[in-house]
Amino acid sequence: MNEDTPAILGGHATFANGPPPWPPERPAVRDALLAAYADGGWGQYHGPRVNDLETRLAVRYGVPHALTCASGTLAVETALRAVGVGTGDEVIMAAYEYESNFLSIIAIGAKPVLVDISETNANFDPSQLDAARSPATKAVLVSHIHGGFAPIDDVVIWAKNERIAVIEDAAQSPAANDTETPKAIVADIRTLSFGGSKILTAGRGGAILFRNVNAFQRAKLWLNRGVQQWAALSELQAAVLLPQLDTLTAEVTLRLSGMQVLAADMPGLRMLPGDGLYKIGFWFDTVACGLSRDLFVKAMRAEGVAFDAGFKALHRSRAPSRFRAIGTLPCASLAHDAIVMLHHPIMLGGRLAGQQVARAIAKTYRNAEQIRAEFPPLS
Fold it and tell me: Which residues are within 8 A (CB) of 151 and not within 5 positions of it... i.e. 6 or more apart?
């Protein structure tokens, strides 16, 4: 078999064992689990680990208060409630976004107001904030997605003038602008997710980071029923997250070395700028690649590379009665049709992994005509 034959056509896969497993083997996490077993923390309501994690998160992100909870989705809902969003209010958000954030706004009786994204990096575009604002506007929800970063500073400056709260969802970018001392949080609240696919993972879980004590107290009140939190992060989850914080910065550096290879010119793919490192996004050009997006994804998965289509734009997938849209949202519509994303675990292989992924993409491109012939579109 020719080494240039793509796996989808019967050739050898670039990654014979498929995408790397997630989470990977982590001796420090194993040791933390064993320690929690030895001291009984695995079965306790209260112990030192959740408190230690909340303290570490507050210090790392430079805020006075941090709370953990059962999921990143709950973290976003709690943040909305903590800034006073309720029935009849409006929350401005991007039209190309994680669906659960949209549904969290709906769940508390508010209405999402959808603005367009930037064509450069597919993140929130603040240029439509004035048009989106109404007397009912209570908050702006800004997510960093696909490795890019929304211009949160610009959003915060606008919101302060308007006396509107800003919530920053960093579920996809816990290492945003990561250094030993990460960039200070400027939004009123930042949320994190520790879901099973996330860079910091405990299977489930989330965190809420507060700059304001009043919002922190409202969140605590919402999350507590009597003497304890009703949707808490467990001691066991905190145990596995603490050692991951120790290695986060080093792993960012490793992933970035692989991404630098992928940022080079590749037919049909243009990497979205940034270093969020979770679901790494690319604008996909069907004509330049020679394959439909679905067929490209299928070919890359045959090579053992975990590409997927991007998110569904909210204005293309949800009932119009559930939101208010600002304009025709052309960039969000384009993203709906033309973004692909690469799942992050492979980037822990660093520069070598980046080179292997680039070779798999090039091999697929060189054989695009034959792949199209083998897999014609359904009539």
Answer: 123, 124, 126
At 178 the pLDDT is 52
The pTM assigned to this predicted structure is 0.95
Cβ neighbours of residue 73 under 8 Å, at least 6 residues apart? 100, 101, 104, 193, 206
Query: Is residue 179's pLDDT more than 70?
Result: no
Residue 197's pLDDT band, with cuts at 50, 70 and 90, is very high
User: What is the greatest pairwise CA distance in the chain?
Assistant: 67
CA nearest neighbour of 272 among 261, 257, 284, 286: 284
Q: How far is CA 274 from the centre of its chain?
A: 13
Q: Which residues contact 131 (CB under 8 A, 6 or more apart)?
A: 115, 326, 327
Residue range 196-204: mean pLDDT, rounded: 95
Identity of residue 291: L
Q: Give the CA angle between residues 114, 120, 121 to the nearest 5°.
A: 70
Gap between the Cα atoms of 347 and 345, Å rounded: 5
For the cut 70, the answer to whether the pLDDT of residue 165 exceeds it is yes
Q: Calculate the CA dihedral of residues 181, 186, 192, 198 and round it to 10 degrees.
A: -60
Q: What's the pLDDT score for residue 301?
A: 97
What is the Cβ-side half-sphere exposure of residue 108, based on CA atoms within 13 angstroms? Answer: 25
Q: Can you name the residues that pair with 133 across neighbouring β-strands?
A: none
CB atoms under 10 Å from CB of 38, counted, come to 9
Name the one residue in this structure whose structure tokens are 């969020």: 276
How far, in Å, CA of 13 to CA of 358, rounded?
A: 13
What sign does the dihedral 325-329-333-335 (CA atoms) show?
Answer: negative
Q: Are 178 and 248 in contact (CB under 8 A)?
A: yes
For 65, the enclosing helix (H) or strand (E) is strand 65-69
Cβ proximity of 314 and 100 under 8 Å: no
Q: Is the pLDDT of residue 188 over 80?
A: yes
Look at residue 373 in the predicted model and tell me its pLDDT: 96
Q: How many CA atoms lie within 13 A of 366 on its CB side?
A: 12
Residue 379 is predicted with a pLDDT of 59
Q: Measure the CA–CA gap between 248 and 245, rounded to whole angstroms.
A: 5
Catalogue all structural domains in the chain, each as residue range(s) with its CATH number. 27-244 (3.40.640.10), 247-374 (3.90.1150.10)
